[in-house]
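Example record

Each entry pairs one chain with its bound ligand, zinc ion.
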Amino acid sequence: MSELDDLYQEVILDHNRSPRNFGKLKEPNRTAEGYNPLCGDQITVYLKLEDGMIREISFHGSGCAISKASASMMTSSVKGKTENEALSLFEDVHQMLTEGVESGDDSQKLGKLAVLSGVCKFPARVKCATLSWHTLHAALTGKGEVASTE
Ligand code: ZN
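Structure tokens for the complex follow.
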């Protein structure tokens, strides 16, 4: 295993063991549900948006280690960001997970999230990793429907 694989595993395991922002928010003003039928991952994302900024965010649900770790990292990285910043991060992460990281610039911009790029090598797990981001996107754009990876 390469160093990146080790790092990838370590970070995923850590977030899976002690997920950040796990639980239900008391008074969210946006929520969305997501479902990944391929793996059975289910997630609900709770947001408190104020003046276009994500003041609070949490997630709840059940799923595999990758989906949980990804949701944990997603909530940590968009908390305190504006709606537009979060949507642009969604685009970057989505591109990284589906197309991979080609240059060092991208991995720098994505910071810790770059460890998720490891799932690119496992196509069946990509949807586990993108689920929370799709759900965040649904919560932000307020379509009010269940986000599905299908
Ligand atoms: Zn999964």
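Residues 36, 39, 41, 63-64, 66-67, 128 surround zinc ion (CB under 6 Å).
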